[in-house]
Amino acid sequence: MSIRNRIPEDNPVLLEIWLRAVRATHAFLREQDVEDLYLQVRDRYLPSVTAWVWEDLDGCIAGFIGMHKAQVEMLFVDPNRFGQCIGTRLLDHTRKQYANLTVDVNEQNLQAHAFYRRYGFKDVGRSTTDFAGRPFPLVHMALKI
Questions:
Q1: Contact, 101 vs 91, CB < 8 A?
Q2: CA 109, CA 87: separation in Å to the nearest integer?
Q3: Distance CA 115, CA 141 (A)
Q4: 3-state class of 91 per DSSP?
């Protein structure tokens, strides 16, 4: 297993991991929301972040983290690999790159919110809508070193 920089050829695999993970954890989204977000992630968000991937010894990608400066923009793990510390190790990797990490988590995604709290992030604010103004509240979190 290793963490390496994302290369453009990884993007279709990362997008598929994103889709499976969102369907497994974002029950509050309608299918149309997922389809709309898929296009935005594919065309705008994924290409715009600095990303690292978790790659198994056999070359299989099991998760990734996307950053914009010290902001965790996306952290997704293949649902078949939940509970294997992949997300934790990706966060550990980014902590070496950036001090004082921040992340915004969908309030309805209780699993992700609990994950970041266990890691040490603290709630520092809340928005009643997501970045696009949709009625999906966000919890703003910060990890201070």
A1: yes
A2: 15
A3: 12
A4: helix
Contact 8, 54 (CB under 8 A): no
Contact 77, 115 (CB under 8 A): no
CB atoms within 10 A of CB 142: 16
Residue 38 pLDDT greater than 90, yes or no:
yes
* CA distances to 79, 93, 106, 132 from 136, in Å: 22, 29, 7, 9
* Residue whose token pair is 């297993």: 1
Chain segment 81-108, per-residue pLDDT in tens: 999 999 999 999 999 998 899 999 999 9
Q: What stretch of H or E contains 61? A: strand 61-68
